[in-house]
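step=encode ok
step=design start
structure_in=
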């Protein structure tokens, strides 16, 4: 039995999320069907996070184990050729024994894109949250700084899978206005040791409330302290969110020393 680490990207627009669902297209289903075509084996794969319908990925990590003599690089090329055009198999590597994409993850980085005011790029509408009001990113960054560090983020968790703890550590949370193809775009980058269900989208929705002066920094601080989801802001739409990368302390074996 060999263990594999699969790094992939996908446009989530056409999928009902990552996880298998009856009679609904999912990314997991597409990858498992691709593996079956390449190897002739029915296997269950595990992703580092179960992205929701419409959420994208640039560096999702997937683990699986199966019997095959294919070199990892050849396996990767074959799997890429046997998955839909909106899923890219970036790399397949032999992993350490019992490698698990969720259990062994130590960090994740997400990006969220937003366009404000009237300068919207119609071509980006499936990948950016487009809002009609102008946002103050300086005060939004101040709000982001309040959320950075180790906190109980229960107030930013949508009801979902039960967790042993709702304490997470955000190591970086930035809000920046950049030019993307001639159109101003607000880019949120957030890195943490783990995320609760809809945590990033709820944080973005709350920072937008602050940025449009509908709420204050004091309100944001109180929402965090309350641990009550009803006290925080709305959930940002799924299509603005992309899983960028996942960090591991234990994944692939080190290269053998040179002779």
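sequence_out=
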């Amino acid at each position: 039995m060999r263990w594999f680490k699969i790094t992939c990207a996908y446009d989530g627009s056409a999928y009902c999320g990552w996880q298998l669902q009856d009679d609904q297209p999912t990314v997991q289903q597409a990858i498992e069907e691709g593996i079956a075509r390449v190897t002739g084996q029915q296997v269950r794969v595990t992703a580092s996070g179960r992205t929701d319908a419409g959420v994208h990925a640039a560096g999702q990590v997937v683990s699986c184990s199966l019997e095959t003599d294919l070199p990892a690089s050849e396996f990767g090329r074959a799997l890429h050729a046997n998955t839909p055009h909106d899923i890219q198999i970036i790399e397949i590597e032999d992993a350490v024994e019992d490698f698990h994409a969720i259990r062994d993850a130590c960090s994740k980085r997400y990006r969220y894109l937003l366009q404000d005011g009237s300068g919207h790029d119609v071509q980006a509408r499936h990948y950016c949250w487009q809002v009609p009001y102008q946002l103050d990113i300086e005060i939004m960054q101040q709000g982001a700084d309040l959320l950075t560090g180790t906190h109980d983020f229960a107030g930013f968790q949508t009801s979902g899978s039960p967790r042993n703890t709702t304490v997470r550590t955000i190591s970086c949370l930035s809000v920046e206005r950049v030019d993307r193809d001639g159109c101003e775009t607000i880019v949120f980058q957030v890195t943490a040791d783990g995320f609760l269900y809809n945590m990033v989208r709820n944080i973005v929705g709350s920072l937008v409330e602050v940025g449009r002066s509908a709420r204050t920094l004091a309100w944001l601080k109180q929402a965090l302290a309350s641990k009550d989801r009803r006290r925080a802001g709305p959930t940002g739409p799924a299509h603005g969110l992309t899983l960028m990368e996942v960090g591991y302390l234990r994944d692939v074996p080190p290269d053998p020393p040179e002779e």
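step=design ok
step=annotate ok -> The mean pLDDT is 94.
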